[in-house]
Structures are given as structure tokens and as C-alpha cells.
Amino acid sequence: MKEWYEKRERRAFLRNGVVVSAAVAIIAVGTATAFFTDRDGVSNIFTVGNIDISLEEPGWDPEKGKDMTPMEEVDKDPTVVNEGANEAYVFVRVSVPRALAATAGQNGEYVKAEVQDLFRYDLNQGWTQVKSETEDGKSIYTYGYTGDDGKMRSLAKASRTEPVFDSVSLINLIEGQLDGSQLTIEVEALAIQTRDVGEGRPEEVLKLLEAGS
What we know:
Elements: E1 6-7, E2 12-13, E3 15-25, E4 45-46, E5 50-51, E6 53-56, E7 73-75, E8 79-82, E9 88-104, E10 110-117, E11 119-120, E12 127-135, E13 138-145, E14 167-170, E15 182-193, H1 202-211
């Protein structure tokens, strides 16, 4: 769980963050297999009002994440819920493990090893990628909850976002790679009150959050 707040002389910004992690174990049994676990948490931050969000995965079934094979899809649908008193702008940050890995192509041909993300997913409508970076063996993607105009979309009290994505799949790894490795997909939800944050441009709103992290 991550939480923070920032106080300035003339205004107070309310922030909150929660984290869900999916641990993936690739076991040496001839093919890559995976086991996922997840957790979430939330705490209130009080200044003028409060921002209180939760990060849920209503479609997630831990049993379906066991013994996962390359290219198999697992339901994983991170969704942010506004449980506080204030309207909020919401971001979700997804950290995907990356490594040097060889894969099989569409026709089963060998594709030489390259550094790449080990999991894939399709971003749903209503989310816009705001930032992408790589560090310490992972790709970090930050998505803003946006409207059709590309600006941040306010998440009302007691409302929930559309899922960021619906499922994740392991890439088509050639067997014998990364056996016994412990991998983690981390999903972090970030929120800030809508008041006094400008016109709602995703890049600018994200800067306010990152300035206090």
C-alpha cells in the first residue's frame, strides 16, 4: 500500500494510493507455469475532505492463475472505486516484468532472444497511456482515466472506473527459460481531488501526484 499527501501554503491536495501485486512463479517442469497472488489496501487521508479509493479485481480467480502456460490468458481486471467524499482524478500504474527471452513465433518458429515484457494485455477504452518508462527489469506504464476529449475524467463519489484491462497473458516463451523465477505484476492506483488542479490535462495532473511522491 502506498499513501501520501502534500500540503502547500495556499491549497491542500488530497491523494491516496493502493497497490495490488500479482506474484508469478515460473517452475521448471518443461514449460513455463505461473501462480498469481494479490493484495490490496487503502487508508483515508484527511485535510479539507478525504480521498478514499480501493483497487479491486472482480473477475480474478486465484485458481485460474495456477499452472499457467505460455500464451494462456488469465482474467485480471483492475478497477478503481471512489469510496471517499471528494470527486477524484484517477491513474493506474502497471509494472510488468521484462527480461531477455526467446519466444516462438506465430508458426512455431524460433524468435531470437530480446529484452521484452513477459506479459501482455489490451488496454480498455476510457484509459490513456500518459507515461512509459523502464527500470530494474520492469516496464512501468501509467494510465489516466480519461474522457473522449483526452482530458482526465472525474470519478464521482461511490463510482467505479472501467477495468484498465480484462486479462493478462504470458508471452510465448521457449521452454527452459526463467524456470524457477519469481515475477511480479504490480498494479498501483493513484488519486487526487479534482478541485484546484487545472484543466485536467493528464500530464499536468500526473505531475502534481509525482511531485509529492
